[in-house]
Amino acid sequence: MIVTEGLTKVFKNFRRPPVTAVDNINYSVDEGTIFGYLGPNGAGKTTTIKMISTILPPTSGTARVCGYDIIKQPLEVKKRIGLMPENSGFYGNLTGLNVLMYYGEFYGKPKKVRRQRSLELLEDIGLGDAIYRKVKNYSHGMRKRLTFCVALFNEPDLLILDEPTSGLDPQGTYEFRNRIRSLSNEGITIFLSSHLLTEVEQICDMVGIIHQGKIVDSGSIDYLQKKIEGSSTEMTVAFQMDDVADEVLSSFGEMDGIKAAQKVGKEYFFRVDSKKRIPEVNNELVRNKIGVYSINVKHVSLEDIYLNLTGGGGK
Hints:
By secondary structure, the chain is of the alpha/beta class. The chain contains eleven helices and 15 strands.
């Protein structure tokens, strides 16, 4: 659905050195997937989106979107995508219905068809009672919903979402996530750009992580977890057990192969150098007459992956 080939964007300013916002990126998004494009603010996410949606020409390289070259066939790309930018630029004096009627005209739809499609979308997205209200009187969440309607107007094969839940309350975020999953189930490919780790982890099939304009890794979350886990000789093990005296807990730090032992909430965490240390810890707990109820290896989270690949910094 999306294949980038050395996609690069350099912004030039005569008074300052040129800035490479996107640097020779190569990745692909398979049809029917929800692809999370993850990175800190300023990493190059929005610039990438502007290029693959043909708003901004690349300095070098190219991409194929829905089978069409973004440079040679931009109109074919536009026909098949829906774009939800982070910030909308609607005319405030237009009503919600007027906005959709206006954008629908770009697709060459007859007025009657545009009106029917507009009313259906507004009702479905929860703006049925604000159809004739001026957009300048919409709340932030309502503007987000309207922007989403615009992106869906042409029934796209590929939906591109740039920070779709930024500024939304928990209920609005929950509803957006459900809608994204529903659209994916209908066969629409989703490209979701975000810096919110929980959002990407909860709904995305595949992830691409961009840092300082470069793709530092991509793949399924499971693949990235195993990759990070495989590159480390250490692991964290969580024990649920009876309370342990501080002096007993500190003594574990002196055992071979145990890097640290600490209590967090109702759990005790041990940093060990291999799985073979787990029964050794358990035996020592039993020797100290401490009851153990469960033992779980803490797997790498998307946050761990992100911090490992980016160092936790922005651009």
